[in-house]
């Protein structure tokens, strides 16, 4: 087997592994640990210059005051208002486009597919000015709807690539067999392909959710006012308000980072590999 | 009534012609087997009948209706795939009833028909399982169950047994034959295994490279192969082919066998020439009984208990197989006398077409 399982490696290799792994882990997690510890540090510690030492007490009230003294709850709500429709829109659309591209051999099939793939290679930052102008003209500037529409547009390319390849990997005989049984194309999509796509839908949902939730670029380009501002851009605004209140900024960051993590654990049980097991000979 | 008729049906994939003009009539209720070597276009032809491949040229009629341009869902046929193609997320019961559910049948009707199909195929204890929890033979039965609940007039099978082990294959062969007797539906069955074809078919269609070589009942193909291809394909072990010189002689045919012995065959021949003599291993005599006797050296002896299969080489090195008694004692290196009975011999001309078929009733 390659790579050799670490349990079977020689003694010194195993020892080196056991030492290196925790070190790598700590280095990797250091910024996160720093933020987490700071978020629980009372304000007095920071005032006394205790930036990196052990906190003098655990200050859960930091979290309460973040919610009380700032509009972060509102920002988080905005983030949900942007992220959830985007996930539904991008994943839903790409189920349909992926199905069409994987199942039907129409003439322009490959070209349409390439168009979706090629979109992924455009660095989206260069679209900043035209997209902003477009949203302004369309009356979508400074609204969550505008963000949703543009996120859906930008995410659908990658999602289509992902879904098309996933459906291509299914045994095509399943679709043919249903056709011979007199099942309509829409029913085939709805009752055979869609249920089998569950692992792909779960994986993509988490990916898109995380990406859109963490998006800062479009949030600042397309939104100005508090009423539509997602939490990423909102935190930046708080940075200005709480110039030296790092404990509060840290607590806000932790709160803002939680939803993607929760989303991952929520969706995890759907990532069952081998769902098509037993469809064919096997 | 569901007879299937193909007239001059052709299929091209791009510039490559795969099915090169098939004319075929399959009667209502007939069990028709397409047999031929791998890659000869059997599956393609079956899929064209199912509607899964377009028909490039020609016409297809099922039950008298022109189906050439009709989609698969409207042809009223059922197909069992080589890979079974069971829906992995549905239970056995749901798999069987799925087609009915999607085509708007009532719940009670679906339940009744599913139960009947499950009973017929002994699937009753498995109805709640998922396909992943079934053995190969059970999956195969579910795939057949899915086909029979719809009461189709035409069943299509694409090598349904090729993924099963040998003993299960024999058992399922019997079950499919019984199903055919019970349902009386038209069945078209694709296989590359001539034993399956011989044991199940009313009518065998031998295909090679996209063309029909011969159509006939199993015994017709066995006794009267039209050409070398069919002669070599039908029958196990294969028919022996021996290069000979043949000429007209005394109102019959005289052939010179390797080593110089001659054999008189009934029949007429227009001109002399190099030809191929065909003799099945079961018709050659290991004890030297026959109208011509040739010495041969044993190369290999396979003792199967009920019979012994000798592979022997003739004077010119031609290897032939001879079926002998299970107790035959010759060993490799021994010399045997092989008898050629004239009435069992086939003769093929230089183009491979049969000039003469043996006639065991003579
Ligand atoms: N979709 C396709 N495109 C191109 N060639 C094909 C296609 N399907 C089958 N063929 C070719 O047609 C020939 C016959 O295939 P098939 O009908 O599957 O043979 P078999 O007799 O083994 O079932 C093969 O040479 C195969 O490569
Ligand atoms: Mg095939």
UniProtKB/TrEMBL annotation, chain A:
Q: Which residues cross the membrane?
A: 15-37, 82-103, 110-128, 148-167, 188-213, 244-266
> What keywords is this UniProt entry annotated with?
Cell inner membrane, Cell membrane, Membrane, Transmembrane, Transmembrane helix, Transport
Would you tell me the Gene Ontology cellular component terms?
Answer: plasma membrane
Q: Which Pfam families does the protein's record reference?
A: BPD_transp_1 (PF00528)
**Among its keywords, does the record have Lipid biosynthesis?**
no
Provide the primary localization.
Answer: membrane
Please, one GO biological process term?
Answer: transmembrane transport
Domain ABC transmembrane type-1 intervals = 76-267
Compartments annotated for it: namely: Cell inner membrane; Cell membrane
Q: Which residues form the signal peptide?
A: none
Q: How does it sit in the membrane?
A: Multi-pass membrane protein
**Physiological role:** Part of the ABC transporter complex UgpBAEC involved in sn-glycerol-3-phosphate (G3P) import. Probably responsible for the translocation of the substrate across the membrane.
Oligomeric and partner information = The complex is composed of two ATP-binding proteins (UgpC), two transmembrane proteins (UgpA and UgpE) and a solute-binding protein (UgpB).
Q: Which family does it belong to?
A: Belongs to the binding-protein-dependent transport system permease family.
- What name goes with this protein? sn-glycerol-3-phosphate transport system permease protein UgpE
From TrEMBL, chain B:
The answer, when asked if Nucleotide-binding is one of the entry's keywords, is yes
Task: Kindly list the GO CC terms recorded for this protein.
Answer: ATP-binding cassette (ABC) transporter complex, substrate-binding subunit-containing; maltose transport complex
- Which SUPFAM superfamilies does this one have? MOP-like, P-loop containing nucleoside triphosphate hydrolases
Recorded hits in InterPro entries, A to Z, give: AAA+_ATPase, ABC_transporter-like_ATP-bd, ABC_transporter-like_CS, ABC_transpr_MalK-like, ABC_transpr_MalK/UgpC-like, Mo/tungstate-bd_C_term_dom, NA-bd_OB-fold, P-loop_NTPase
UniProt superkingdom: Bacteria
Residue stretches making up the ABC transporter domain:
4-234
Coiled coil region boundaries = none
Q: Which GO terms describe its molecular function?
A: ABC-type maltose transporter activity; ATP binding; ATP hydrolysis activity
Alphabetized, the UniProt keywords read: ATP-binding, Nucleotide-binding, Transport
CDD domains attached here?
ABC_MalK_N (cd03301)
Entry's NCBIfam families? PRK11650.1
* Name of the molecule in the record: Sugar ABC transporter ATP-binding protein
Lineage, opening ranks: Bacteria, Pseudomonadati, Pseudomonadota, Alphaproteobacteria, Rhodobacterales
């Amino acid at each position: 087997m390659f790579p050799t399982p670490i349990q079977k490696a020689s003694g010194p290799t195993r020892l080196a592994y056991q030492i290196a792994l925790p070190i790598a882990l700590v280095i990797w997690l250091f910024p996160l640990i720093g933020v987490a510890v700071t978020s629980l540090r009372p304000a007095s510690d920071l005032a006394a210059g205790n930036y990196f030492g052990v906190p003098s007490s655990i200050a859960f009230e930091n979290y309460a005051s973040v919610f009380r003294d700032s509009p972060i709850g509102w920002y988080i709500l905005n983030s949900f208002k942007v992220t959830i429709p985007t996930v539904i829109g991008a994943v839903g659309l790409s189920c349909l486009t992926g199905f069409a591209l994987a199942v039907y051999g129409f003439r322009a099939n490959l070209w349409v597919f390439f168009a979706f793939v090629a979109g992924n290679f455009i660095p989206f930052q260069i679209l900043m000015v035209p997209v902003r102008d477009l949203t302004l003209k369309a009356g979508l500037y400074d609204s969550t709807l505008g963000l949703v529409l543009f996120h859906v547009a930008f995410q659908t390319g990658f999602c289509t690539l992902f879904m098309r390849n996933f459906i291509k990997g299914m045994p095509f005989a399943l679709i043919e067999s249903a056709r011979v049984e007199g099942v309509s194309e829409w029913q085939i999509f709805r009752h055979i392909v869609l249920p089998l796509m569950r692992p792909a839908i779960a994986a993509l949902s988490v990916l898109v959710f995380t990406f859109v939730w963490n998006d800062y670029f479009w949030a600042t380009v397309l939104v100005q006012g508090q009423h539509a501002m997602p939490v990423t851009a909102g935190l930046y605004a708080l940075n200005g308000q709480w110039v030296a209140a790092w404990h509060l900024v840290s607590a806000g960051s932790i709160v803002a980072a939680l939803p993607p993590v929760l989303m991952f654990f929520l969706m995890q049980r759907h990532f069952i590999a081998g769902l098509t097991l037993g469809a064919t000979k096997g | 009534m569901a007879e299937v008729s193909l007239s001059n049906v052709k299929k091209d994939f791009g510039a490559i012609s795969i099915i090169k003009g098939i004319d075929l009539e399959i009667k209502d209720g007939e069990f028709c087997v397409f047999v031929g070597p791998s890659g000869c276009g059997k599956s393609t032809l079956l899929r064209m009948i199912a509607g899964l491949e377009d028909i490039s040229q020609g016409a297809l009629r099922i039950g008298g209706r022109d189906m050439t341009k009709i989609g698969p869902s409207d042809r009223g046929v059922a197909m069992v795939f080589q890979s079974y193609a069971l829906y992995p997320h549905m239970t056995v019961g749901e798999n069987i009833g799925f087609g009915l559910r999607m085509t708007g049948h009532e719940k009670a009707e679906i339940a009744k028909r599913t139960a009947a199909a499950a009973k017929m195929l002994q699937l009753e204890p498995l109805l709640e399982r998922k396909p992943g929890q079934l053995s190969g033979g059970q999956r195969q039965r579910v795939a057949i169950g899915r086909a029979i609940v719809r009461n189709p007039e035409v069943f299509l099978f694409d090598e349904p047994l090729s993924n099963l082990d040998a003993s299960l294959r024999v058992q399922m062969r019997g079950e499919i034959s019984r199903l055919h007797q019970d349902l009386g539906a038209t069945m078209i069955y694709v296989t590359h295994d001539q034993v399956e074809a011989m044991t199940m078919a009313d009518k065998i269609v031998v295909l090679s490279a996209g063309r029909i070589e011969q159509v006939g009942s199993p015994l017709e193909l066995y006794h009267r192969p039209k050409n070398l291809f069919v002669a070599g394909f039908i029958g196990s072990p294969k028919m022996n082919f021996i290069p000979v010189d043949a000429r007209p002689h005394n109102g019959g045919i005289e052939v010179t066998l390797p080593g110089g012995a001659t054999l008189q065959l009934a029949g007429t021949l227009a001109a002399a020439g190099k030809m191929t003599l065909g003799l099945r291993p079961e018709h050659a005599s290991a004890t030297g009984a026959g109208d011509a006797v040739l010495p041969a050296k044993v190369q290999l002896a396979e003792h199967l208990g009920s019979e012994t299969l000798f592979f022997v080489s003739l004077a010119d090195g031609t290897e032939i197989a001879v079926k002998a008694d299970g107790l035959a004692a010759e060993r490799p290196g021994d010399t045997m006398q092989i008898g050629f009975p004239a009435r069992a011999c086939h003769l093929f001309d230089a183009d491979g077409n049969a000039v003469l078929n043996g006639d065991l009733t003579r």
